[in-house]
Design a protein that fits this description.
11% strand, 9 strands, flat, alpha+beta
């Protein structure tokens, strides 16, 4: 472990965090009566590392450490109660980082949950009344219908700005009851640490068990509701399933027959795979493209000249639309079609 620490400090501004399990070290005076722990303290001095945790992390011992070569790299170290069934306290701290971010313009989206669909149906019905039967072609009828729907959408469905910046990622089952339970747990832990007593310890233990039960209940209810709506909204279901899977393993390293050893560089691996995929493509001869033969070979009087579409058939197809799908090239969204069903013009 000491060898790994010496290798880690070669990286500029490195911070080492972990459970070192040295219970007998007195971090106030930085001394210990154990030979192994004394050797560890000497190694920290040789590497110019400072230990920044000043409170016990398990019982009365400081086992979990934060080591840094510069104290300014780590700020606002706080100790909170254990997580789940762990008997180690949580260590939280801030690392000051300056990032250069490119500001992207905010995108505008429709808030379909607050749409006035009764008004929208009235506007569409009023504008289409008596006009559909007067158009001379099917394309003209479709253009009239599409423009009417889009115009009514702008008038009846409010728009919201979607922030391009990433927000803090929170578990999907987080609700107000869970936040309150976590808040009570942290408050009881601070009370216990500021005034150690058997009463405050039992109070913190009670809040800890309560918080654990609330988390389990919220997660179970969320997953049950997600499973019930999996057919109606499968995108949310599979998004949650993917988030629970372990991290994807990267591609590589790859064996290369042209050179000795394996390819480990990401860019070299991508170029190698791209070269292989390009080699298996079939080069089509575009110089002689055959002309398709007409599919209809009957008499002209037998051609399909009239198409009958019933209102019931259209409403049935609209009812089968998946509201979670994206709009097509026409810009009309499935959710809007399912909410605006016209019985007659």
């Amino acid at each position: 472990m000491l060898r790994e620490i010496r290798e880690a400090i070669k990286i500029k501004n490195s911070i080492i965090v972990g459970d070192f399990n040295y219970p007998h070290i007195d971090w106030v005076h930085v001394t210990s009566g154990c030979n192994v722990e004394t050797k560890f303290l000497d190694s920290l001095n040789d590497c110019f590392l400072e230990q920044l945790v000043q409170e016990p992390t398990r019982g009365e011992s400081t086992l979990d450490l934060v080591l840094s070569g510069a104290q300014d790299l780590v700020q606002e170290i706080t100790i909170t109660g254990p997580l789940g069934n762990s008997d180690h306290n949580i260590i939280t701290f801030n690392i000051p980082v300056v990032l250069r971010t490119h500001q992207q313009p905010n995108t505008v989206a429709f808030n379909f949950k607050k749409g006035n669909y009764a008004k929208m149906r009235g506007l569409v019905k009023q504008k289409l009344k008596g006009k559909v039967t007067k158009v001379k072609s099917l394309q003209a009828a479709w253009t009239l219908f599409k423009d009417t729907i889009i115009e009514a959408q702008l008038k009846c469905i409010p728009q919201i700005k979607k922030q391009s910046q990433r927000t803090k990622k929170e578990p999907p089952w987080l609700n107000s009851h869970l936040k309150e339970a976590v808040k009570d747990k942290k408050a009881s832990f601070k009370k216990w640490k500021s005034n150690p007593s058997e009463v405050s310890r039992k109070e913190h233990k009670h809040c800890q068990i309560k918080c654990k039960n609330v988390i389990r209940k919220a997660k179970m209810e969320f997953e049950e509701q997600l499973a019930k709506n999996s057919k109606a909204n499968n995108k949310t279901f599979f998004k949650y399933v993917r988030s629970r899977k372990p991290a994807k393993q990267p591609v590589g390293p790859l064996d290369d027959r042209d050179r000795k050893g394996a390819l480990k560089d990401v860019k070299v691996i991508a170029e190698k795979l791209n070269k292989f995929f390009a080699s298996v493509f079939t080069a089509e001869d575009v110089g002689e493209i055959p002309q398709p033969e007409p599919s209809f070979v009957g008499d002209k009087s037998e051609e399909l000249s009239q198409i009958e579409v019933s209102l019931e058939a259209v409403l049935e197809l609209i009812g089968k639309l998946n509201c979670n799908k994206s709009p097509g090239p026409d810009g009309i969204r499935p959710r809007k079609n399912s909410n605006v069903k016209l019985r007659h013009y």
